[in-house]
Amino acid sequence: MQIEGTYDLTSGRGLIACPRCDALHVEHDLHAGETARCVRCNAVLASPRAGAFTRIIALSFTTIVLMLAAVFFPFLRISRSGFGNETSLFDVALAFSHGPLIPLTVGLLGAIVGLPVLRACLLVYTLLPLSRGRPPRAHAVGAFRLSETLRPWSMAEIFVIGTTLALVKVGGLATISFGPAFWAFCALILVNAASNVFTSATTIWDAIEDGGAHTDGRELLRERPE
Amino acid sequence: MTDTPPPAEPGPALKPAEPVRKTAARAVRAGSSLIWLVPIIALIVTLGVGWNAIASRGTLISVNFKDATGITPGETALKFREITVGKVESVRFTSDLQQVEVNIRVDKDLARFIDSQSQFWIVRPQVSAQGISRLDTVLTGSFIEGYWDGQADEQQTEFQGLEKPPLTSFGAKGTWIVLSAERSRGMTDGAPVTFRGLQVGRMQNLRLAENNEGVLADVFVAAPHDARLTSNTVFWDTSGFSISFGAQGLAVNVNSLASLLQGGAEFATLTSGGEPVENGHVFALQPSEASARENLFIDAANVLRLTMLIDESVKGLETGANVQYMGLTVGRVTDLASRTVDGPNGERIQQEVTLAITPERLGLSGDVTRERALDFVAEQVGNGLRARIASAGFFGTSLEVELVSLSDSAPAELNRDAKPNPVIPTAPGEISDFSETAQGFLSRVGNLPIEEALKSVTDMMNSITSLASSEDTRAIPGALRGTLDDARTTSGEMRQIATELRESGAAGQLRKMIDEASAAAEAVKLAAADVPAMVEEIDKAATSVAEVDFAALSTEAQGILKDVRAMIGSEDAAQLPRNLSDTLEAASGLLNDLRDGNAAGSLNEALSSAKLAADSISDTARQLPQLTARLESLAARAESVIAAYGDRSAFNTETINLMREMRRAANSFANLARTIERNPQAFILGR
Amino acid sequence: MNDSPTNPGHDHNAEHDAPILTAHRAGLIGCRGCGRVWPAAEETCHRCGAGLVPPDRRSLNGVWAWLIAGFIFYIPANLFPMLRTSTFGGLAGNSESTIFGGVLELLHYGNWFVAAVVFTASIIVPIGKFISIAWLALVAGRPATVHDAHRRLVLYEVVEFIGRWSMIDVFVVAILSALVQLGFVASIHPGPAAVAFALSVAFTMLSAQSFDPRLIWRGLPLRSRKDQDHL
């Protein structure tokens, strides 16, 4: 338990170190809507948002739904003078499924589909009880950490941009028409971006801590303890 | 834990900084309910799209095929009128593993038209006797084609696919008929059916008849040709070729090469009065056009059957023999049997011949039925119509039945009530004996006056021989000799002229001419009987005379050469000397002209007149055969001599040869001239 | 329990890097995941469970290792063909193109824009990343002004952001291969360069992730953890 505003240079209580530049800051309990930034490198230290958790949860659900749509609906259709080919996401991944390329298939499928869904599920798992004010689940810590580790590896939006590029290459040759999956993916990018805006790791860690997860005893309090 | 004092002690101790706090530009309200719109919308849209996709999916039908060549689940399309209306979803085996079940999802708006009348087949490249088709499916992939009509009858979802694409496109207007034959000769799948040589349909679906007694084929005759089909239409087989030997002689009949290979049938409607046919009407396929035209049992129900009873032998009469009436075939003999009848002298055997007559062929007008035909026959029988056996065929070896009106026959009646058929009274048969006929033919041949003809030929030949060996003929050479003497005289004159010409500086060819003339005389002198040589030299002289000046003259000379030959060849002995002297006189006249200096023109004229003379000579004398022959041979030798110098047919080459000969002749002519010079008498009296 | 005055702003700090107290100087370690500060001897953050790594140059080993691996894989990515096109079942032509060959082909067809994009994304960007990360690793911890430090930080963030996007090329190959499967007429298959390129990008991403940006701000002589005890 640490009183807000106090800090201990010996043990590091009440302090925040900027993840980017290692500058020490005093930890404050921020109001909703405020953003705390590092004095040196201007990195965001904490930015609690009102209802952020709910929003993140909602967006995560959306991610899951959209990903299902993207997987099961046809993605692209190419046709030229009678020959046509319709491809869905599976076909894209299966394009690599010949012998030594199988790991690449698994990697691609994972990066495009698996990771976003997994992250979404982890976020929901972590934040759902928190958004209702209940104590977090048992593995919330690990879940959230995994989610944060996986964040740079989810490549759904890159996939869509890459698709567009490929279509530009092929577009001169044949007629391309987009299926529902493509639009689901585009929506997915937007949802992802929105979700990132609302996600502030520090805040969520604080919430997990405040919610009663096993912590290190350094929760911030506004009042002085008795 | 250790203390880590900041290195720079002076100054305030380093403290952790306060983070820069910024309030959001506008307070974000806890509009948590709003954000839930996002997943809800996403869910709705997703479900909506999914639902739409499923709902508009269309119905699943399954078609059984023998094999699924070229069908790929998920890709192969179902096409109707070349538009994709469905897609193959999956391919399975049927429960008995005998067939392949193809599940196709058909577009919804079309699915309701797929009823029990629908047909499905696989379109893939085909190579057959009718040609190669649908190679484009190699690139685009095979597809399944279906046909159904525009009426939605009872729905059906399980179908049996056709093994092959149908030969005729559905929806075409026309009539389906069935052809039946005993054997499948001329019937193949896809063989054309023609009308007046124009293809109007194809055979398909060859199969055995149910009672295994024949072969059936379906033919779809397209509109408007199906209007020509009536119940009286006959079909015949046009495949292969046929040879017929009849009154017109030998005839080989071949239709197109296609029909030779793949068979075919043709039809024609020979008689009127038939009813229009319905789908499925069975027509018999006749083996040939001739038999079709004679085929009368078009309508087996309307056949008039009669029986005739004969006492005499019917050897040579077979079933299928014609029944003739007034020269036309009106029926056939269908049955021959014996039967015993009771007669005044006990039982005797009678031949019972069953005739089947086609009433239409009797020539009745209007609605022709069996009864009417029977009435007609009965009436005619009352007027003397009888049936009898008659000879038919080229040599009269086969028999047929003839219905003739014999005015002198005993009155008789058509026995209508006899069983099984009415009995028509008969008359004695008209059978000619083959042996008699042949003998008569030979006797006629023997009666020809061949002997006399031979005799007259022999006489003719004898007279020819006698003519050839007559005295007059033999006297010819002597007369010729006299003529040759005149020629010598003429050649002497020629020499004179040549000298003068030489002196006057004329062309050396003139000398050549004289030389040749003398050479010719020399040759004559050398061999009195060497008429050909003399003649030859004269020829050459004439030729060389022509050679003197112009090529045109050469042509003339050539002609003269020929004419002289002809002349020699056909000369009358008595007239020859005279004509020759005429010619030579003309030649001397020519030389006189030459002397006068009018060489070219006079030569031309002279030669032409000589030609005319020669013509007249040849005209006047043609009749002596032997002399003719001999002179011909002489001329032939002359020709062969010329020909011996090489087989060159061009005029120039021949002329070259002639020039060579002329050179030789000129030499001997020179000798002659010298001899004459030295001893003129020797010339006349001989050396 | 001191309330320290709020520091007025960065301008002052931008001029001098001395007044900033970093966790390392204070003998503490900050968790890179959640920001909590722990004493230097701690090894795991007790809040978020992440490992506590002091910002020293030993972490650069990982950076170099991943970077070199990424570079090694970049070479076959350019030598082997990226795409194999076969038209008409191989009858009309089999064409293979490397990354660079593809760019040239696009230029040849007049598709300047796409060619530029592909060239940037597949050649300029990866090479730029190699150079940037190598440079950052080399100069990390060297004395520098705050201005330089900011620049390097910007560079680092750019590299980290771009990292994912280099995978575009692999996705393009994947899409084309999946899409242009027109059977007999034309079909495209990925070549071995695709795998190599994907691996190269992955390793480069790992390299960038391994780089501790806090090293940029180490203008002071480095101390290893063991030395801290002596200070």
TrEMBL record, chain B:
InterPro entries linked: Mce/MlaD, PqiA-PqiB_transport
Chief place where the protein resides: membrane
Location of this chain's protein in the cell: Cell inner membrane
Keywords in alphabetical order: Cell inner membrane, Cell membrane, Membrane, Transmembrane, Transmembrane helix
Key word Cell inner membrane present: yes
Species for this entry: Paracoccus broussonetiae
Boundaries of every Mce/MlaD domain copy: 58-137, 177-234
Record-annotated membrane-spanning stretches: 34-54
Name this protein carries in UniProt: MlaD family protein
Protein origin, superkingdom: Bacteria
The keyword Transmembrane appears for this protein: yes
Family annotation (Pfam families): MlaD
Automatic annotation (TrEMBL), chain C:
Keywords: Cell inner membrane, Cell membrane, Membrane, Transmembrane, Transmembrane helix
Chief place of localization: membrane
Pfam families: PqiA
Cellular compartment(s): Cell inner membrane
TM regions (residue ranges): 63-83, 112-140, 161-184, 190-208
Transmembrane helix listed as a keyword: yes
PANTHER family found in the cross-reference section: INTERMEMBRANE TRANSPORT PROTEIN PQIA, INTERMEMBRANE TRANSPORT PROTEIN PQIB-RELATED
Protein name per UniProt: Paraquat-inducible protein A
Species for this entry: Paracoccus broussonetiae
